[in-house]
Amino acid sequence: MFASAEQIAAAETEERRKALYLFNCAQRAHYNFLENYVFALPVLLVGGVSYPRAAAAFGLVWSVGRAMYAVGYTNPAKEKGSGRHRGGLQYIGILGLVGLVAKTAYDLLMS
User: Fold this and answer.
1) What are the average pLDDT values for consecutive 10-residue runs of the chain, which has 111 residues?
2) Which residue, 17, 29, 61, 98, could crosslink 11 as a Cys pair with Cβ 3.0–4.6 Å?
3) Quick count: other Cβ atoms within 10 Å of Cβ 55?
4) Global pTM?
């Protein structure tokens, strides 16, 4: 699923080596997405039961942050201001969703 170190070292051209490296970066970003998606989807669902619009907004923020992370992680230029740290926006979305779940649980306990 990844290009091995041997495959990268044996690449014919520098362009091919760079392509294999970026492929590995894209694979790591995708795996990181899958690891986070398992948590994000249930909190989006539970938070959306009582607060559908807020949950949709936080879900959108999380999605945009994930896309920014993936693009930054696979950016070959790595110029100043680029990179996966821009994907930190996702944490605003996920924390908001966790807050909605907590509020939903509180509302259910108090009713």
Assistant:
1) 83 86 87 93 95 97 91 71 75 96 96 88
2) 17
3) 23
4) 0.82
